[in-house]
């Protein structure tokens, strides 16, 4: 590729040469901001006459070659603004401390003055990461926790309002003669009445209906809300309101109710002959009407007219 120093008028850019001797020698190398990448070449050790070496503000990586410490003529070494790692060679540090070399290494975050400082820096970085990790986790969890707490408070307030509404509703009907036989049961009483839900009568959208006995051996049907039911306290209140307002001898009557925490149940009088749907089914309706006693047919018709 030719001599970088001669002819003199065509010397390479970024280089200064000495022409005092018979053979020109490179004295200054300025490759600052030249978009250099990769490792620093150990070939720089051949520039024994170099006094100034500037490799700053490139993208050089890896460690600083130990052979640079052999350049005894070197007075300025600028390695600032790169991505160098590891420890600075002891020979360069010694010459810098003695005032024989101007050494610039700022901007290399992972470059250490010696092995001990690298260990301290690594430990510091490790501690920072250990501290930063839980902080980041906490910062991420706080909004989630606050959101869940808000949902919990909202649900509790909603349930509290529904219970208050139900209590006001019951208190508002205490003077109603239809309410005299209605009774509020606890969930423990419901368990005793149904013998721990031993006998199932049927299932619906609200929940399951169980057979039970009151203290006086009166048979009842206990309709409980299941956890998977889409109907809630609102639908429960609506059904209670309808049952209280509607009173007919051919309509099953409400014996009582249970609203104990999340447990909702309605206690009806027990119909031992089955449900109305057992009789009203297409062609079977005609057959059953002919076979039923006239008084039963008339009572059914009166009930339907009442509805």
UniProtKB/TrEMBL annotation:
Pfam family, one: PK_Tyr_Ser-Thr
Residue ranges of domain Protein kinase in the record: 195-307
Residues the record lists as binding ATP: 223
Membrane topology: Single-pass membrane protein
Cellular compartments per GO CC: plasma membrane
Alphabetized SUPFAM superfamilies for the sequence: L domain-like, Protein kinase-like (PK-like)
InterPro entries: Kinase-like_dom_sf (IPR011009), Leu-rich_rpt (IPR001611), LRR_dom_sf (IPR032675), Prot_kinase_dom (IPR000719), Protein_kinase_ATP_BS (IPR017441), Ser-Thr/Tyr_kinase_cat_dom (IPR001245), Tyr_kinase_cat_dom (IPR020635)
Lineage: superkingdom: Eukaryota
Keyword set, alphabetical order: ATP-binding, Leucine-rich repeat, Membrane, Nucleotide-binding, Repeat, Signal, Transmembrane, Transmembrane helix
Transmembrane segments: 131-155
Molecular function GO terms recorded: ATP binding; protein tyrosine kinase activity
Gene3D superfamilies the record matches: Phosphorylase Kinase, domain 1, Ribonuclease Inhibitor
Record's subcellular location: Cell membrane
Matching PANTHER family: OS07G0107800 PROTEIN-RELATED, SENESCENCE-INDUCED RECEPTOR-LIKE SERINE_THREONINE-PROTEIN KINASE
Protein name (database record): Protein kinase domain-containing protein
């Amino acid at each position: 590729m030719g001599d970088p120093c001669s002819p003199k008028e065509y010397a390479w850019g970024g280089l200064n040469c000495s022409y005092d001797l018979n053979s020109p020698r490179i004295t200054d190398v300025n490759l600052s901001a030249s978009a250099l990448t990769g490792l620093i070449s150990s070939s720089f050790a051949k520039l024994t006459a170099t006094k100034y070496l500037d490799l700053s503000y490139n993208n050089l990586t890896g460690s600083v070659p130990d052979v640079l410490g052999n350049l005894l003529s070197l007075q300025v070494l600028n390695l600032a603004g790169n991505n160098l790692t590891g420890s600075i060679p002891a020979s360069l540090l010694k010459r810098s401390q003695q005032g024989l070399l101007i050494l610039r290494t700022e901007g290399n975050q992972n470059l250490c003055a010696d092995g001990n400082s690298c260990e301290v820096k690594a430990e510091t970085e490790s501690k920072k990461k250990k501290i930063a990790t839980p902080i980041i986790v906490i910062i991420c969890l706080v909004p989630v926790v606050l959101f869940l707490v808000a949902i919990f408070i909202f649900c509790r307030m909603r349930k509290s309002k529904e219970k208050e509404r139900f209590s006001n509703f019951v208190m508002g009907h205490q003077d109603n003669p239809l309410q005299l036989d209605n009774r509020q049961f606890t969930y423990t009483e419901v368990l005793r009445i149904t013998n721990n839900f031993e006998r199932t009568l049927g299932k619906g959208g609200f929940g399951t209906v169980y057979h039970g006995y009151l203290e006086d051996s009166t048979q009842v049907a206990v309709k409980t809300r299941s956890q998977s039911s889409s109907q809630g306290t609102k639908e429960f209140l609506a059904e209670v309101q309808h049952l209280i307002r509607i009173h007919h001898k051919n309509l099953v009557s409400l014996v009582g109710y249970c609203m104990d925490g999340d447990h909702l149940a309605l206690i009806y009088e027990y119909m031992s002959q089955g449900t109305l749907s057992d009789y009203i089914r297409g062609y079977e309706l005609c057959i059953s009407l002919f076979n039923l006693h006239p008084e039963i047919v008339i009572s059914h018709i009166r009930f339907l007219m009442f509805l």
